[in-house]
Amino acid sequence: MEWIRGETIGYGTFSTVSLASSPSNNGSGAFPTFMAVKSADSYGAASLENEKAVLDKLGYECDEIVRCFGDDRTVENGEEMHNLFLEYASRGSLESYLKKLGGEGLPESTVRRHTGSVLRGLRHIHANGFAHCDLKLGNILLFGDGAVKIADFGLAKRVGEVTALNEGVQIRGTPLYMAPEAVNDNEYGSEGDVWALGCAVVEMFSGKTAWSFKEGSNFMSLLIRIGVGDEVPLIPEELSEQGRDFLTKCFVKDPKKRWTAEMLLHHPFVAVDLDHDGLVEEEGFVVNLKTEKEVSTSPRCPFEFPDWVSVSSGSQTIDSPEERVTSLAADSTPDWSVTNSWVTVR
Ligand SMILES: Nc1ncnc2c1ncn2[C@@H]1O[C@H](COP(=O)(O)OP(=O)(O)OP(=O)(O)O)[C@@H](O)[C@H]1O
Asked: In what residue span(s) does the Protein kinase domain sit (predicted)?
């Protein structure tokens, strides 16, 4: 495929994302005329390879997962670049969208709709045996028609798989979205994605991160709050009762008791049954609402789901929570990088 690199539309830890046009395709072939191309040098190549492998396995049937059209390599300024071609989200990420609102959150109706979409994406990812492991607003993309899709599968992994990244004392993803079992036991499974979804819902609604954390304050104190004790993120009081209840199901500290994406899709916060034809006008455009078939009463606990099976990630337990947090603090070789004034640890 011939393509032309356009303007830069985003930066990640491992990559730069630009607009790519493929005029010869004219939108008629296998590729659309405009795509996003995620490019990395040799340092980020493994992440891009992992992302492509996972997206290939997830296939095309889930509308809430960003599509991958293939990859190639180029030499630019004497350096070999690895390129991944993705569906272009013209409105960027939810993180950048919220930034434009200057600290304001989104209306609850929009939060419900986006949450339902992300849950359908997570259900598909988990049903195929993967965990995303880096769900956050920066990795939820907003499309011109109001749809949202999950992106950035660079850290995704097979549930139960022990990879080089989770051997020993390491953490992956963004600390603000880390689940207690990830902090305490190095466990990264589908349950952690549900915890992260809860953090994303709080942030979408309030415009603020789920954990209050002052810039410059001690990062380890946050890890201790997440991993040790009973504290969970603050649930916004302005949220409806359904929304608050939904979040309590995401913020269950014990991953085995936390609701799954499948279970949460039956929660009334997202399983809305509007008494009109499913169209709502929102933020200047009409959105076709997808609803779950059954919107009856919400199960109130995991045991009300007859076929619910708890999936454990199978990662090894390293230490007690206290020992692990202390070892994280004392670990001399973490790869710390700073993105958007927050610390991301790889
Ligand atoms: N398909 C896309 N369409 C439009 N914008 C995109 C697309 N993919 C990524 N972006 C933009 O680029 C940013 C970085 O992309 P992405 O998160 O995939 O990169 P990354 O290197 O894996 O980053 P990180 O792991 O640090 O989050 C996103 O936050 C988003 O703003």
From this structure: 3-270
